[in-house]
Amino acid sequence: MDPVPPGVTTAAIWQGGSGTSLQRVPVPRLGPGETLVRVRLATVCGSDLHTVSGRRPAPCPSVLGHEAVGDVIAAGPGSPAEPGQRIVWSVTVSCGACARCRSGRSAKCTAVRKTGHEPFDGDWPLSGAYAEHIVLPRGTTVAAVPARMPDAVAAPAACATATVMATVQAAGPLIGRRVLIGGAGMLGLTATAACLDAGAAVQVIDHHPDRMALATEFGARPGDDGPVDVAIDFTGSTAAVSAALARLDVGGILVIAGSVAPSPTLAVDPEQIVRRWLTITGVHNYEPRHLREAVVFLDRTLHRWPWHQLVDDPVPLADLASALRPPPTRMLRTAVAP
């Protein structure tokens, strides 16, 4: 028997700063293509930390949280999921019909909406994962989670891992290539694993000793001054991007994925781009296929790398404020279990 959808649920409403309040919220009747999910575990992405610290603008009040895993409770007509499934879901919700969607850039849909980024007083109040339930609108991509995969491994697939899949695709074929990863946070460490898995030789640069230790445990080596074929930056630092660009060998590719806030201008010498035949590209969010690829990648490498050890033990929803902080040493994500 399918679970009966609740009439109300509990959500942590972000009120600005680090303040949240638990409120009872009505669960709406599902429309065509919509899905109701009971959140099992939500991991705290760095962008939410930027929001509560004031570094990133966001609607307020709202229900934050976009990196999560949960069980489908109910599904409207045409929903991509079925009751009883354990799933992860996309950050972006696209229309599927505009020119950007048709060209394969649905993450930049002209009418894009985002889970965990919508106003609570709008038409999608239960948009975030820091709640007992979340409503997924039509246009949300979902991916089923294999039974053997722990929640702590599955949840980051919805943002960090899927974004890495997009950056690795942008980097091109990697077998035998020399890859430099800038930043050893959740994305950088995941990219390290993905590039090693693709047959690359990987080096990582990060100023945090514990994160560098994790990167070496994953199989990377510390960065040196030699040339590289591919550089992927997750730091968001213009100085780090500039240094990576300078190290590219002829035909090199620079993928910038961490620069998601205003920063100093990057100085680029057009002659060097031409003579060294360089490519500079950016990646922001990901496409539906990348979410599915993320789940497959994590499942395939479940025992190769200790993914579950990168997420701290979850706190209850009532203690969300304690999770909205930088993770403890050697952890890359804090977590909430609503």
Automatic annotation (TrEMBL):
One of its GO terms (cellular component) is cytoplasm. It is an enzyme of class 1 (oxidoreductase). InterPro entries: ADH-like_N (IPR013154), ADH_phosphonate_catab-assoc (IPR017743), GroES-like_sf (IPR011032), NAD(P)-bd_dom_sf (IPR036291). It comes from the Bacteria. Residues 31-142 form the Alcohol dehydrogenase-like N-terminal domain. GO terms for molecular function: alcohol dehydrogenase (NAD+) activity; metal ion binding. Pfam families: ADH_N. Its EC number is 1.1.1.1. The keyword Acetylation does not apply. Keywords: Metal-binding, NAD, Oxidoreductase, Zinc. Its cofactor is Zn(2+). The keyword Nucleotidyltransferase does not apply. Belongs to the zinc-containing alcohol dehydrogenase family. This is alcohol dehydrogenase.
